[in-house]
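Predict the assembly for these two chains.
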Amino acid sequence: MLKLENLTKRYNTGDLALQGIDLSIPGGQVLALIGPSGAGKSTLIRCINRLVEPTNGSAILNEVNLTKLSSRALRKSRRKMGMIFQEYALVERLTVMENVLSGRLGYVGFWKSFFRKFPKRDVNEAFRLLDRVGLLEMADKRADELSGGQRQRVGICRALIQDPDLLLVDEPTASLDPKTSRQIMRLINELCQERGLTAIINIHDVLLAQMFSQRIVGLALGNIVYDGSPEGLTPEVLTKIYGEEDWSATIEKVDDEYEEA
Amino acid sequence: MMNNVSETLYPKSWKKPPFIKRSWLRWSIIIGSILYLIAALLSMDINIQRVLEGLPRGQRFIESFFPPNFSDNRGVVWEGILESIWMAIISTVVGVALSIPIGLGAARNLAPLWVYMTCRFIIAGSRTFPEIILAIFAVKLFGFGPFAGFIALSLGTIGFFAKLLAEDIENSSPAQAEAVKATGANWFQWINYAIQPQVMPRMIGLSVYRLDINFRESAVVGIVGGGGIGATLNTAFSRYEFDTAAAILLIIIAIVMVLEYASSHLRKWVQ
């Protein structure tokens, strides 16, 4: 479904952020991308929707080579890739509804979006999604009035209303407390199951990665150093990804004791 | 003992490192600036005699302002005020409208290099000339009257507004911009959804502030023939009607204070 071939990124500073990544992800798989800061996780997912231009190699989504697209065709392909951000990246002075509907910008014309006249179906879907994440009555609030967890839910709605095939998720829990982090990860996971979405989730927290994904890819210095099941994360593997440390407490199997609040 | 060891190893005094590290350079800058200030003061040749003579003249001048004459027999003051107000409003609206595309082009995070350079050049050009110089040009081109003043103030507004707009855009959050771009939005939608909400409150505040500036400047451009209350003020002075001039100045002060009060309220409200 998504295939990365020799994907390489060298920044203008000369830093080689991705050193020829080969990765193939079947439809419906939820993949967690782990690795230390600076390993190239953010660069990798941004090279897929070309918020960062890859230097070399290709990213192929449903037989379309994204790296070769013209800017018009790229905008069209971006509609099929929903993105969820670290620190939510909502437009803070817009209402919750405008933030959600901005996920439809690729589908509507400029003047329609300028006057906030979105098609009835889109508005209806926006309300449905807000209800699904428990924020129906927040629609007219300004985004900066919400708490962190609520903002990330709005971010999820914005990504899902695009009707994407692929979700690119960049550190969704980086600024959330442990409980909210689990709720958000569970929500993303459930929504992926409901809609049969493929997802790449960048995440710092190894435990969360193990709890909520079917496959784990470990990145270190722009190279894939682990690709396998969550159970396969042994202290040796973690040392290979992150470096020497006492890993015994990290990989203890945790009970999923947190309930949906 | 551990304590003894640490006391002998670590220094007990600490000084903030100086801003300029090389001490010879630091001291030559300090001493050089002091010497220059002294030399500059000495070369100014302040003549105490002339200052003392000027003081009573100034007193007579100010006395002739009182009482201010608000009677406005020929109706010129009222006419001048109205002309200044519409000059200020129209030039602010036109200037801001012209500033928006130029400001977008002058933001490095939106525009390619050649657009950026062009727009920055326009802004620098507008900022080089104060309104009074622009007004002299405009009067030469279009003749005396408020139209020349309007052109001068509109051009002055571009240098002010486009520059601040560009800077505000460059300081806007890249994360919000990236998020909207990732949805597949086109350039105009991206500006409308990601950039505009971030810069709008400041732009509204600056527009009102610029209206205030343009009203005050309309008094200045009038003196060189740009119409408005400045022309009336100039006439009053040249006819030695200092009491009328005083009334005009008081009216200008009152209007500026009202605008100032209104703009600070508006800025608080849009935040």
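The interface with chain A takes residues 173, 175-176, 178-186, 188-190, 192-194, 197-198, 200-201 of chain B (CB under 8 Å). The domain at 73-270 of chain B is CATH 1.10.3720.10 (MetI-like fold).
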